[in-house]
Amino acid sequence: MEYQILKNINQIIERDSKDTTYKFALLRATIEVIQERSPHQRFDEERVILPMGLLILKWVEYYYPIIENELPQRNGDNLDTFTLSFRKCFKEVTDFYRSRGGLSVFYSELMKGSLHEEIEDSVFDLCKTMRNTIRNQPMRYIGKSVYGTEYSIFNWVQPHRNLIQPDQLDANTLIENFGEFSIPRDYYNVMELMGSFVTGMHSILIHWAKFTVNKDRRLDLNQVLGTILESPLEHRNTTLSQKIFSQLKAERGNLECVWTGGRISDDLNIDHILPFSIWRNNDLWNLLPSKAKINGRKDDKIPSIELLNKRKDSIISYWTLIRKSEQIVFDKELSISLVTRGKLNQQNWESVAFESLKDKCSYLIKTRGFQEFNV
């Protein structure tokens, strides 16, 4: 069955419509959302249901540098004919942030709900247009070359209420209010296990880059690939965590290494629980104090389930302290990556979040094959 699904995906990449890059963007986004093990995914018999908002966040990430650099993304596309459905409203956003920090600043403000008032309407229109585009274009046609029918793989789940612009637009709004989509469980399983290969050098990214170069022969393939792969999270950012733990260390006189329990004196390091090179995440919950030597040994390894269980009290204790210091930021980040907002309001949110962390680590070790870390 898995082999047949992989054959189908290959046929979709090779044969389905190539009028735009929407197909590549949807497949790439779906695979990445699945492999990030979202706490918002649900299983319903033979299908898996996920929020459309997660796809929109991915598309914002993918297309921002493309729109900013005016790369062609559709047959007949040129600088005078903006034929991508969201190009016009997206250009308003990229123009606004061009002198304000670009993609990184825009993406951060969208995630946190701190968009400038003068651009918030344009961003809402962009997200709404992207949702409609995803639903009416690639979701509709992906798989038609295999099954001969529309919406043969992706199904759109209509939200229970009309989409109204909120007072504050952030990642949670996109996740909770922009509807859902579903895919068959067998496609989910293959994308979960093999998706990294599908998006590798011989598939989506290369096809996307080649498509763009074919529309403008002056472009270089490597240049286009670099633009497509640009991310709002290019660097490790531990500034706020460093401030929190440095202040805590000054108050207490010392800190405990999250992985060994040993005393941290002058060798304080901020460790990414889930390594940044594997999971680009600078959330406060993912940044905890470690001895420099231990952090160096851990490197890009994933904490083993045994180690997590052993250090559960230390991890939860630090989470509690971080939340006390920066509750708004901590809650926003945690509710996107580890627990739903409803569960975050429960008294046992720490245990729920910890089990979700264990699930992510188990997935990275057992399914994705990354090396585990033990002390």
Task: Note down, in words, how this protein is organized.
- With 375 residues, this protein is an alpha+beta fold.
- The chain folds into 2 domains: 227 residues, no CATH class; 135 residues, no CATH class.
- The protein is built from 19 helices and 10 strands.
- The strands form 4 sheets. A 4-stranded antiparallel beta sheet has the order 1-2-4-3. Strands 5-6 form a two-stranded antiparallel sheet.
- Helix 1 crosses helix 10 and helix 16 packs across helix 17.
- The protein is globular and about 65 Å long.
- The relative contact order is 0.11.
Major sheet: arrangement of strands: 1-2-4-3
- What characteristic shape results from the CA principal axes? globular
- Poorly predicted runs are none
**How helix-rich are the residues, as a percent range?**
55-70%
Mean of all residue-level pLDDT scores: 89
Structural class: alpha+beta
Rounded to an integer in angstroms, the radius of gyration calculated over CA atoms is 21 Å
- SSE arrangement, N to C: HHEEHHHHHHEHEHHHHEEEEHEHHHHHE
When the domains are counted, the total is 2
* End-to-end CA span: 40 Å
Overall strand count: 10
Largest sheet: 4 strands, antiparallel
Task: Provide the β-strand percentage band.
Answer: 5-15%
Quickly count the helices: 19
Brief description of this entry?
The protein is an alpha+beta fold and 375 residues long.
Comma- or semicolon-separated keywords:
single chain; 375 residues; alpha+beta; 2 domains; four-stranded antiparallel β-sheet; two-stranded antiparallel sheet; 9% strand
